Amino acid sequence: MSTLQHTAAPAVPEQAAWAGAQVLLLAGLDGVIGLGPLGWLAGLAYGLATWVLLGAAMAKAGVRAPGPADRVTLARGLLVGGVTALVVDRAVGVGFASAVGVGGATAVVVGLAAVALALDFVDGRVARRTGTSSPLGARFDMEVDAFLIFVLSVHAALVFGPWALAIGVMRYVFVAASWVAPWLRGELPPSFARKTVAAMQGVLLVLAVAVPSAGALVALALAALVWSFGRDVRWLWRNRVRAVVGTAPMKGCTRV
User: Fold this and answer.
1) Domain boundary, last residue among 98, 129, 159
2) DSSP state string for 28-45
3) In a 3-state reduction of DSSP, which class is residue 253?
4) Where are the alpha helices (DSSP H) in the chain?
5) Cβ pair 225, 201 in contact under 8 A
6) Could you say which of 111, 131, 178, 189 would form a disulfide bridge with 252 (CB–CB 3.0 to 4.6 Å)?
7) Any idea what DSSP says for residue 75?
8) What is the pLDDT of residue 138?
9) What angle do CA 189, 195, 198 make, to 5 degrees?
10) Which residue from 117, 119, 176, 106 is spatially nearest to 148, judged by alpha carbons?
11) Are residues 144 and 32 in the same domain?
12) Residues 182, 213: one domain?
């Protein structure tokens, strides 16, 4: 979990710095691996979307600049932007691994994703140690996680088949469903099993990317995710009156 702090410092110069860092990362990948036009476009679009959405959320919350844990999450986001560019190149078959070969490019995808996943444990520690946790920061952290899982599931789908994409889109389908079924926005009780399943998605997908014959790992990740979402949907349905009316919600978390 991360945080977004109130501070008097304006966010615009920092936004420019992070945007520049994203461009530099893409340029580095282009120089070492080779990115096609769509890879560049995807990486830049991801970076732009991140700042537009984050900036809007910060403005709504009255926050001027990211806090220390958010900067760790932003660093993770840069890596996710690189993974996005490489996976899009792989999907369209243009530019991917033009300099180092498919195996080398896959290794870079694995490396970037693995570091991004490892940093997920860092931003939470920073937020707790600095006492700056907030719902907005936690949401930012969750969205970065969700998009990384989505991009990795696209890569897995290219190798194992379209069914693997269900891992990445399941959370977004759940969010879309909550627009027409408000009870899905209810607050869930804390669950170690839910956290474990969420954490294992990225790990298993990275392993599957690294070992193309490990389709069973992707199937395991999908089965665990279906079970976790199914269990939560069942709980939310049973408690839907409380969720819709808003009476005494149980403190925990939400998938939306």
Assistant:
1) 159
2) HHHHHT---HHHHHHHHH
3) strand
4) 12-32, 37-61, 68-92, 102-130, 135-160, 166-180, 192-210, 215-238, 240-245
5) yes
6) 189
7) H
8) 85
9) 125
10) 117
11) yes
12) yes
Q: Which residues contact 172 (CB under 8 A, 6 or more apart)?
A: 146, 150
Alpha carbon distances (Å) from 98 to 28, 104, 151, 156, 172: 14, 10, 20, 20, 33
Do 239 and 205 reside in the same domain of the chain?
yes
Per run of 10 residues, the mean pLDDT along the chain (length 256 residues) is 46 78 94 89 93 86 82 93 93 58 77 93 83 81 94 92 95 94 91 92 92 88 96 92 49 57
Predicted pLDDT of residue 3: 46
The pLDDT, as a whole number, for residue 256 is 63
User: Per the structure block, which two tokens stand in for 133?
Assistant: 């946790």
User: Apex CA 80: angle with CA 26 and CA 252, to 5°?
Assistant: 160
Token pair in block for residue 9: 């410092």
Encoding tokens for residue 65?
A: 């600049």
On whether the CB atoms of residues 105 and 86 are closer than 8 A, the answer is yes
